[in-house]
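Entry for the shared binder. Reason: the reviewer on the internal report wants the predicted structure included alongside the sequence.
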Amino acid sequence: MLSLVENREAPPEILAELHRRSGRAHVIGVTGAPGAGKSTLVDQLIARYREAGQTVGVIAVDPTSPFTGGAVLGDRIRMESRSLDPGVFIRSMGSRGALGGLAATTQDALKVLDAAGKDILVVETVGVGQGEVDVVRIADTIVVVLVPGMGDEVQTMKAGIMEIGDVFCVNKGDRDGTARTMAEVASLLEITPHGPGQWMPPIVRTVASTGEGVDELVDAVGRHWKHLDRSGELATRRRRRSEAELLEVLKERLIHYVLNEDGMRGRFERYVDEIAKHRRSPHDVASEILHEGRVARQRERPLA
């Protein structure tokens, strides 16, 4: 089923049934810069949740090979010790050129695992920078993973990824500069407006290679989940996600409809040539395509 979803071959009725059966799991997004140790950290999170008797599904999004279209890093290899556990399912997905740190079909893949009854769903994104924050559209709790020695890079991230974190994890916390990095994050959080009753993101130090601090990280994620439930923010977030998902599906369907309309493929290439030669603007061409689509639909309507 995951392969059908990832390849966009799942029938609409199957996608509808998956949607009806999803919405129960706690979705945790793990994001951060390349080399921050996200995969090792996720492996430790799996172990803690399994010790607590919870089932876990993991979607690890990797950069895509330009030659094969497959996932380059293959994060399942780093979590190989968990693969034989029937309570754990791990899937690597290539980003396939999608921006934002996720694959285009990540959300539907999560619904498959949610509908299958997994308690905890973890999404590990491609190593991201300040603008690649699509994980906010699919996760209930977002763990931003940083490493010591980032220095001014933390400051540059404040306009993007720093604003989406619910829990900040300074991994590789046995290195020099850990205290400074944690202080940098704390100072940024202090200047971010937080009203009464709003969640104040905690900062947790971990050493994923040894498991140090992972229990504290699990506790922080659990406290955020309870806060979302008590405050009503969970319903608010999921409604925003539903709106974003609907707009994304509409955009995808509209583009597919336009490009597959009779005779459009050849015309589309002509339109691109005209735009490239600056004879017409993209806005002008888009208006023409949409107008033609409206006229065609009016002709198809039966007479009253």
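Summary line for the report: Strands lie at 26-32, 56-62, 88-94, 120-124, 141-146, 167-170, 203-205.
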